[in-house]
Design a protein that fits this description.
Largest sheet: 6 strands, parallel
Number of domains: 2
Helix content: 40-55%
Radius of gyration: 19 Å
Number of strands: 14
Strand content: 15-25%
CATH topology of the largest domain: L-2-Hydroxyisocaproate Dehydrogenase, Chain A, domain 2
CATH architecture of the largest domain: Alpha-Beta Complex
Length: about 300
């Protein structure tokens, strides 16, 4: 294969991302995890599936970072979920330490790579990654809006009984309760959904989108979503590796766009071989602007918490 993708974290999200990338033959994949034997075992299992799935991408498992040398894209899924009795600060501190360690190692072996962050709390982890790597904003990207928009698109398709391929949706802001789905910019075959369903049904779908991750956690009981997050990260990697110039909603460090500075917020961006090649500013209503600023304030709160924590 011409390209290489490193996936850090061999849990459900990471292993599924490795599988998706390999089966698309986007790149050879290195799956890295600190648990001895786990990435090697999952890598071997995926390699043994190659004859059935009919692809020749190589998947290598490792416990160190040297095999990631020269990676074009690195997808970071490492981190822990929030456990009973764990405060938000505990989760923030633990995952910030993990992401900082991961990114410093990646920057050492693959200094020209592009980082795609999946670890939570996502927007805050993007700040950690940018600081730890020293990379420009074009090469540190958070996977949030792609996942949130995919959920919104699915709900729209189900509501209207149409193919998901006919749907398009935009979700801006932070990855969490304050995300900002934009019905005006969400369409079916180019027709805004505001013309296809009632305001009450749209609001119900918006609420379900905001609660999308929690809905799955409630059903699983002992885990969280991983198929859709993995697919979303790989869609971003594909846009970069194939230089597709694809417009996707991603978390990027804003430098004046939307009136925000030095804050990772989900907005539409053009993804190509350079990573974020353009931040696209769309016109927002006063209500949408207020919602985006509220979301930005929530992200700023996490960043402020990071500043006072020892990690």
């Amino acid at each position: 294969m011409i390209h290489k993708i490193a996936v850090i974290g061999a849990g459900n999200v990471g292993a599924t991302a490795a599988q998706r990338a390999a089966e698309k033959e986007l790149a050879d994949v290195v799956l890295i995890d600190i648990l001895e034997g786990v990435p090697q075992g999952k890598g071997l299992d995926l390699m043994e599936a190659r004859p059935v799935e009919k692809h020749d991408a190589k998947i290598q498992g490792a416990n160190d970072y040297e095999p990631a040398a020269g990676s074009d894209v690195v997808i970071i899924t490492a981190g822990i979920p929030r456990k009973p009795g764990m405060s938000r600060d505990d989760l923030l501190t633990t995952n910030a330490r993990i992401v900082k360690t991961v990114v410093k190692n990646i920057a050492r072996v693959a200094p020209e790579t592009i980082l795609i962050l999946v670890s939570n709390p996502l927007d805050a982890m993007c700040h950690v990654a940018m600081e730890a790597s020293g990379f420009p904003r074009e090469r540190v990207i958070g996977m949030a809006g792609v996942l949130d928009s995919a959920r919104f698109r699915y709900f729209i398709a189900e509501e209207l009984n149409v193919s998901v391929e006919s749907t398009h949706a935009f979700v801006l802001g932070g990855h969490g309760d304050t995300m900002v789905p934009l019905p005006r910019y969400s369409t079916v075959a180019g027709i805004p959904i505001t013309e296809l369903m009632s305001p009450e049904r749209i609001e119900a779908l918006v609420a379900r989108t905001r609660n999308g991750g929690a809905e799955i956690v409630a059903l699983l009981k002992t885990g969280s979503a991983f198929y859709a997050p993995a697919s979303s990260a790989v869609e971003m990697a594909e846009a970069i590796l194939k230089d597709k110039k694809k417009i996707l909603p991603c978390a990027v460090s804003l430098q004046g766009e939307y009136g925000l500075h030095d804050l990772f917020i989900g907005v539409p961006v053009k993804l190509g071989k350079g990573g974020v090649e353009e931040v696209i500013e769309i016109k927002l209503t006063e209500e949408e602007k207020a919602a985006l600023l509220k979301s930005a304030a929530a992200v700023q709160g996490l960043v402020d918490d990071l500043a006072r924590l020892e990690y």
